[in-house]
Request: fold
Amino acid sequence: MANELLIKNGHVIDPANGIDKKCDVLIVDEKIAEVGEIEKSAQTVIDAAGKLVTPGLIDIHVHFREPGDEEEETIASGSAAAVAAGFTSVVCMPNTNPVIENETDVEYIHRKGRQTRKTHVYTMGAITKGLQGVELAEMGFMAEAGAVGFTDDGRGVQDPSVMLRALKYAAMFDVVMTQHCQDDSFAGNGVMNAGYYSTILGLPGADALAEEAMLWRDIQLVKKIRPGRIRYHAQHISTAGSVELIRAAKKDSLPITCEVTPHHLLLTEECCAEYDTNYKVNPPLRSAKDVEALKQAIAEGLVDALVTDHAPHLQSEKELEFLAAPFGIASLECALGLYVKALIEPGILNWPALIRLMTEKSAKIIGVDKGTLGVGRQGDVTIIDPDAEYKIDVSKFRSKSRNCPYHGWTLKGRVEKTIVGGEIRFEA
Amino acid sequence: MALIRKSKQFKWHRKHLLGLRELSVEEITYILDTAKGFEQISTRSVKKAPPLRGKVVVNLFFEDSTRTRNSFALAASRLSADIIEFTQKASSVSKGETLLDTARNLEAMGIDIVVIRHNAGGAPKFLSRNINACVVNAGDGFCEHPTQGLLDVYTIRKIKGTLEGLKIAIVGDIAHSRVARSDMWAMTKLGAEVIFVGPPTLMPTQLSRLPVSVSYSLDEVIEKVDVINMLRIQFERLGGNPFPSIREYSHYFGLTVERMKRAKPDILVMHPGPINRGLEMESEVADGERSVILEQVTNGLAVRMAVLFLVNQAAAQKLKA
Reply:
């Protein structure tokens, strides 16, 4: 007998299909069967009155630390955090130990994800072996195993000729090449944004140029190898200069997309003033001017995805001098509320526009058939109470890590239920 | 105690001295006035006073230092404290113990005041958040070196009477200098005008937001200033190749006998030490009649006694409260 799940009376937002109204969603056997006024019964009926019903949220940039640093996070703990935050799909970064650089590694991540039975777990593969920026990793085999893109995230591919070769080679496969834009010769040993605060705090600064120089270079490389089946995605852009570069690239209709994190929308370099290492992140928190430029870019539609760059670390690792502590903010579990605060409350985006960035557009970047409630699509649905307030308490996190600077913040927009493949995987 | 002149109404309340940026004019003046009272102890036949008797001061130094370390040790001993010397090499830090664990271990031994020097900006602040003992910053990365800043303004005030209206040049590697930063905060708060002088490659980012002006020409500045503080070129901190050669640096930014001829006759020549003779300063200038470099060292002792005394007093008052 068919397995039926009916979500009644919710306000359905499905940007891909232009739906933004009160109606019902029926899932039969893992797939979306119908969206509209549905007058039948089902084995399971959810009353979503007063709630938003959206395609399952997608975060295309997380670090689940497995394999290698399971004390910080595992695919199981990260996935539990993900569904609790409404994410039905996540994309892990390959900078684990060992690095995800061959098909066996990719399959390992997928198997762990399946076994956890929480969220869909995808992974990117490394562009270069060991993230060393020298020899290309086996991108073809990894793509065949299901890697949804490639990156040396954590660092950028420094050598322009290596990056050019990687982009050319990857054009054989329909994959997205993504970059953590950071020219190390400009970034130096910087631990925060180079500016007034790095000067008075006596900390080495990483100049915005470090990001912009590499993004500019990569845009030139993409131009160079067009036409070709190339897609380039700039990860976590953080500066006003990067926004300018993206704006120009999009004007030229280059196949270039970009993403922004909540911390680069909500926090500035000034947050580092007390040397709290929970604000140490890479790319670093920038100036208020950069934050404004990123918000403006989102308002203009220049940004293609919102991602957390969830980067869990042990408390003992973060309880160090600012200079010595690792980079990273763990924010997966409060992501939606953060976007609401950064983008909906100030009127930069409305709900459909926000959901579009977190679903349809994100799915498109990594080339997966998700992010919509179209009939026949996988039954991934998130139910949100847009008015419910909650206070962030890191001690309640399902993630293994607590390095979250938003502890104690009050946010609006709570995830009520997360449905993955027609199965309720999270209930508030 | 009788040595301390009570300024009107002002009460010192800080149990840590982390930097001069956060201090008010009143607080800085109060430390300087307190130091003045301590100066005479060093001229007595019995060079000791009892205010820190039974207290334990640890010199927690993660970077090389000779004079600051000795100065703090001597200051503590003049105030009758017990002193523990803790160096990176001699301790378990080299085995990978974190700063926090080191500090907690020291605290478990009953330490009252931690004097810390560390290569990371903010390390003293980090420590102060995590332990109960008083924390005194003896230099953190290129953030601050508050007792050096205090002894510099103390020395200037002692000779010139006030800093109000003085023009002061700080010359050299500003970018990597904690002395330049502490000097800047203290000197400008006390009413002096500060000019940073050095090559653009040794200037920090966004100077426009700091209360200083900038010059790339020592020749233009030398005639105008009442005080010139020559920073040490810190070879250990210089990354890359900020200037082409020592010879070229000295040519543009060395304080030579020739340049001194164009200086005001009553200029004060300062240096935080140790001097690279012939590099940032010619020996004839370092040892010349306008040099107050050794007075700085003497005054440093009084200033550090004052700081140890005040933080301990604030801690005792907090305990009572």
In short: The radius of gyration of chain B is 19 Å. The interface with chain A takes residues 21, 98-100, 118-123, 125-126, 130, 140-144, 178, 181, 204-207, 209-210, 239 of chain B (CB under 8 Å). Chain B has two domains: 25-143+298-320, 146-293. Residues 25-143+298-320 of chain B form a domain with the Rossmann fold fold (CATH 3.40.50.1370).
